[in-house]
Amino acid sequence: MITEPHIPDPDAFYAAWLAAHEGLSEARSADLNARLVLLLANQCGDPQVLLDCLRAAAEAA
Amino acid sequence: MERYAFAPAYELPSWPFTPPPELAEGRSARHPVVIVGGGLAGLTLACDLAVRGIRAVLLDEDDTVGVRGASSRGICYAQKSLEIFERLGICERIAAKGITWSLGRTFSGEEEVYSFNLKADSVSAQPPFVNLQQFYVEWFLVDRIMALGLTELRWKSRVTRVQPGADAVRLDVETPAGAYTLEAEHLVDASGAHSPIRTQLALPAHASRSTDRWCISDVRFTKPLPTERWTWVDAPFNEGRGVWQHLMGDGVWRMDYQMPEDCDPEEISRPEVAGARLREQLGPDVEFEFVWIGPYGYRDHLLERFRHGRIFFIGDAAHVVSPFGARGGNTGIQDAANLAWKLALVLHGQAGEALLDSYDAERRPAAQKNLEVTSRSARFLAPRSPAEHVMRRAVLSLAVRHPFARALVNTGRMSVANDYPPAPLLPEGGRSVQNIAFADAQGRTTTLMALLREGTHALALWHAPTPAQLAAAQAAVAGLPVRIVTLNGDGGLQAGGAELAHLGLDAPGRLLLVRPDAYRAALLAAPDTLADAVRTTLALS
User: Fold this and answer.
1) Between chains, do B405 and A38 touch, taking CB under 8 Å as contact?
2) In this structure, is residue A45 part of a structural domain?
3) What's the domain count of chain A?
4) Domain membership flag for residue A1
5) Residue B169 CA to chain centroid, in angstroms?
6) Is A41 a member of any domain?
7) Does A34 lie at the interface with B, CB-CB under 8 angstroms?
8) Are strands B151-154 and B56-59 parallel, antiparallel or unpaired?
9) Cβ of B398 and A39 within 8 Å?
10) Measured between beta carbons, which residues in chain A are less than 8 angstroms from residue B390?
11) Under CATH, which architecture does the B431-537 domain have?
């Protein structure tokens, strides 16, 4: 799992992420994020990295 | 209100109760093998023992097959089960009466999101699946067992108590003509999910019950539908819940509807209510008649050990999983086939006791795997929280557009012949060898199952040995229960390229040791280790 900065333009990505959710209800936002997780998970494809990401996401709460 | 017709009930055979010698003579007798329960697992075991020349006593509470008045239970017979039935001599009958299929489609709403064709990577003489009402399979097994003539089928015989002992297990049996006691050197509990033997011995089974509810409607209608397995995750004609649609014998369709968790089983199975559901799915013009309506919930359990001394647990007595993927009955059939040849070799005095322990070592991990797989399907089909619904919705909406997400759509992963983990008798682990067809010197077709049909022996399939190698190996294994078969060499059988690849025998000189249950035991690069490999695999004494 990569934890060092890896997104070339973090502010631009964050803005694009917000824009994708703009005007959506809470439920539709949740749906969108879930679809996003699946698409990103398929980009990665490495089972160990996916499990590490799941754990890191749970721990950050 | 529309009125719905019912087809006449199935006419099942029944067999007479005959008072056993124990009752007539008033004394207990000892039997090498006693099987309790005449369902798929128990009957398969009795039949598989009989073809190996082993006598057994089978006790069954009832005097017929199936569940009286009901047609529920298993309908899908997987390739490995069909291969076992082919070896036992009833596969043709099953295929003739049943529906052969290999294609499954999954829908979400109005759209198809996923399909699979199980035929694509098969080299077996048997199809991936045949659908048939369970009682027909049991019926054909009983006919075959009776023709073989080595099994005492004792109907109307209920086991009330078992007492494990050092030399044998004592069983108290209740019959219409009174109670008696008999002894079993090996007792096989195939008495199903509610096994009284398991209960009496207080063996932990780690049972759990799902809150998911379904209702089966077995129906006949004239609307032509493809003979494929169709599943809806969220059918528009069932208030967004799951639906299964599958054809079995006699032109009967099994339509299985997911119901609200808090439904009243009696209400949802009323003909008017079940009929209205079908009408919603089939449209206004299709005439249909019910064969059977049955609401159900599912449960699971898994025994910690499948062997307790002289008692072996097979089929639902040992493990129960949710129905998704047809991993219940098929697993019981394959438990039976795993145990039969081991009992035969031990009872023939050829193999040691360790062979019987390998039943638990191989079949418990198989059942554990099936429990994991079916639990995941059940969880996909019945999300337990709003968050799980969000996740499933994400999978389904992406699956319509993108192939990667289709792999996540889980309406049941169809039963496969489970791999076995590495173990002392199986150093490389084991996996099933399909029922490959070969051509003999005269161009006639034979199969792996035909080669395994007579007696109880392993097969050494050898790609093109030299005559000198063959003679040396024959001498080395003389007297051992193994048969050497030459492939694509002088005077041997001919195998195609795909078949050789499946066997791992692409390269000439290689040799594959196959067990009596058509599991691969060892792939040998040189023939001089064959005799040792046979001794290890079969735990020869």
Assistant:
1) yes
2) yes
3) 1
4) no
5) 27
6) yes
7) yes
8) parallel
9) yes
10) 27, 30-31, 34
11) 3-Layer(aba) Sandwich (3.40)
Sequence length of chain A is: 61
Q: Chain A to chain B, count of Cβ pairs less than 8 Å apart?
A: 24
| pLDDT tens by residue, A27-37 | 999 999 999 99
Helix intervals (H) in B348-445: 354-381, 386-401, 403-406
B405 touches chain A (CB under 8 A): yes
The amino acid occupying position B340 is: A
Position of tokens 């639906």?
B243
What tokens does A14 get? 């964050």
Residue with the two structure tokens 């199980």: B118
Q: How far is A6 from chain B (nearest CA, A)?
A: 24
Which CATH architecture does the domain made up of B31-98+130-206+302-381 adopt? 3-Layer(bba) Sandwich (3.50)
Q: In this predicted model, what pLDDT tens digit does every residue of B430-465 receive, in sequence order?
A: 999 999 999 998 899 999 999 999 999 999 999 999
Selected for mutation to probe chain A from B385, B392, B393 (highest A CB count within 10 Å) is B393
Domain range list for chain B: 31-98+130-206+302-381, 431-537
Domain of residue A57 covers 37-61
Closest CA to B344 of B479, B458, B424: B458
Residues from chain B that touch A27, judged by Cβ atoms under 8 A, are 390
Q: Do B397 and A37 touch (CB under 8 A)?
A: no
Q: Does residue A60 belong to any structural domain of this protein?
A: yes
Strand partners, B322: none
pTM of the model: 0.96
Mutate to test the interface with B, among A26, A32, A42, A50 (most CBs of B within 10 A): A42
